[in-house]
Design brief:
heterodimer; A: 65 residues; alpha+beta; Alpha-Beta Plaits; two-stranded antiparallel ribbon; two-stranded antiparallel sheet; 2 helices; 22% strand; globular; B: 408 residues; Cytochrome p450; three-stranded antiparallel beta sheet; 15 helices
Chain lengths: 65, 408
């Protein structure tokens, strides 16, 4: 799995950080998404897919292997 | 062929204070999208199913610009309100993103989580006051309104002593039954109040969100009017919605004693967090839908929404869509409900949702544990409901409990 985030689209709702804080964080200055792990380990895949699905701004793209 | 076009918004059925209007469920069964008629005779689209609601709310071809002449309106507006909007919730990107991003950091997950001890302290103090006070008591006035009002006052830097003023005017502003002039009068009084407060913060900045905005005014990133509008938006959204979830949530739990017992008897923060999501889903207090207008032709579910068409996304019935939530009309605090759309969806999804979740987690995990014998002091049918609000809830919730049953 390979992840990308679009910081221009992000609206800072924080859904991804709530679900997978190991993978996503928010920038200190404006709360916009930061990707901590572009290739999360397999046990995180389900929660990362959910994070992409509930991202209100569709700012998370999951590329499956 | 003539089809009946339903009037919108619809009214909840008598005796079903927690369920969306039955007509909405019937329309959802018939298909994901239909047309409804508003008070002014206009006939916007009404989207009833979860999947289509999410797809459309994420679609940048739908506009939230509420100053557009063709934007659907649920109520008539006063001439003085023409062309006005409540900050970035009534704007599209890039203006929306520019303003929203100035306050997003303040509502980031970790920043809000750091407020948990302070929120717990406020909730505990308010329960101490409840326990020391007379019975029966109106839970709305004595607890549900004060808790989020104190929290948002601390965050914004608004004096809590002014709560009577801003609560009263917020109530008028979000009521559909008042006259357009009354509603706009309330809006103007809130704007005047926040503008004066911003003026004070410019002279004497403190460590609060409004003072942060004055730094941006000084830097030329934001006008004073924009800051004032944002302040009004955050003050209203920060107390009214959460207050309604506290009081209506308590009413719903008292009417579902087995679910209430699950919450009272757990010390599992995951269960509490799940319960908050489930109550948000089940009660969906933003019961007049998310309102938008199509900027281009959009094909969806076999229909074409034409440029200029109004679109109402009825998230109350979306949260009862059986394709998204099995057995949707059942309140089940253990269910997986975190994909609900009670906070909306798309780039306008509630900015304050981490704060709302935190406050509700603290309240729901503390109130019923400390007052285990809490019960209604009126017949359920006599609880006054906010049928006429833009935001649903109860106007009052008389409650009582046995003195020896409270827990310090």
């Amino acid at each position: 799995m390979k992840l990308t985030v679009d910081q221009d689209k992000c609206c800072g709702a924080g859904q991804c950080v709530l679900l997978a804080p190991e993978v996503f964080d928010q920038r200190e200055e404006d709360g916009i998404v930061m990707l901590l792990d572009e290739t999360p380990a397999e046990p995180l895949h389900a929660i990362v897919r959910e994070a992409a699905s509930v991202c209100p701004a569709a700012a998370i793209t999951v590329q499956e292997d | 062929m003539t089809e009946t076009i339903h009037a919108y918004p619809m009214r909840k059925a008598e005796g079903c204070p927690f369920d969306p209007p039955p007509e909405l469920g019937e329309l959802q069964q018939q298909g994901p999208i239909t047309k409804v008629r508003l008070w002014d005779g206009s006939t916007p689209w009404l989207v009833t199913r979860f999947a289509e609601q999410r797809a459309l709310l994420r679609d940048p071809r739908l506009s939230a610009d509420s100053t557009h002449p063709d934007f659907p309106r649920l109520v008539p507006i006063a001439p003085s309100a023409s062309g006005t909007r409540l900050s970035f919730i009534g704007m599209d990107d890039p203006d929306h993103a520019r303003l929203r991003r100035m306050v997003t950091a303040q509502f980031a997950i970790k920043r809000i989580e750091a407020m948990r001890p302070a929120v717990q302290r406020i909730v505990d103090e308010m329960i101490d006051d409840l326990l020391a006070g007379p019975q029966p008591v109106d839970l709305v006035e004595a607890f549900a309104l004060p808790v989020p009002s104190r929290v948002i006052c601390d965050l914004l830097g608004v004096p809590y002593a002014d709560h009577g003023f801003f609560q009263d005017n917020s109530k008028v502003l979000i009521n559909r039954a008042v006259t357009p002039e009354q509603r706009d009068g309330a809006r103007l009084r809130l704007i005047e109040y926040l503008d004066a407060l911003i003026g004070e913060k410019i002279k004497d900045p403190k460590d609060d969100l409004l003072s942060d905005l004055t730094t941006r005014i000084a830097a030329g990133e934001l006008t004073r009017d924009e800051a004032t509008q944002m302040g009004v938006l955050m003050l209203i959204a920060g107390h009214e919605t959460t207050a309604n979830m506290i009081a209506l949530g308590t009413f719903a739990l008292l009417e579902h004693p087995e679910e209430l017992a699950r919450l009272r008897e757990t010390d599992d923060p995951e269960l509490v967090a799940g319960a908050v999501n489930e109550l948000l889903r089940y009660l969906n207090i933003t019961h007049t839908g998310r309102i938008r207008m199509a900027l281009e032709d959009i094909e969806i579910a076999g229909e074409v929404l034409c440029a200029g068409d109004g679109v109402i996304l009825a998230n109350d019935i979306g949260n009862r869509d059986p394709d998204a939530f099995p057995d949707p009309d059942r309140l089940d605090l253990g269910r997986e409900a975190r994909h609900h759309v009670a906070f909306g969806f798309g780039v306008h999804q509630c900015l304050g949702q981490p704060l709302a979740r935190l406050e509700l987690q603290v309240v729901y995990s503390t109130l019923y544990r400390r007052i285990p014998g809490l019960r209604l002091a009126a017949a359920p049918a006599d609880i006054p409901l906010k049928h006429d609000g833009f935001v649903y809830g109860v106007y009052a919730l008389p409650v009582t409990w046995q003195r020896n049953q409270s827990v310090a």
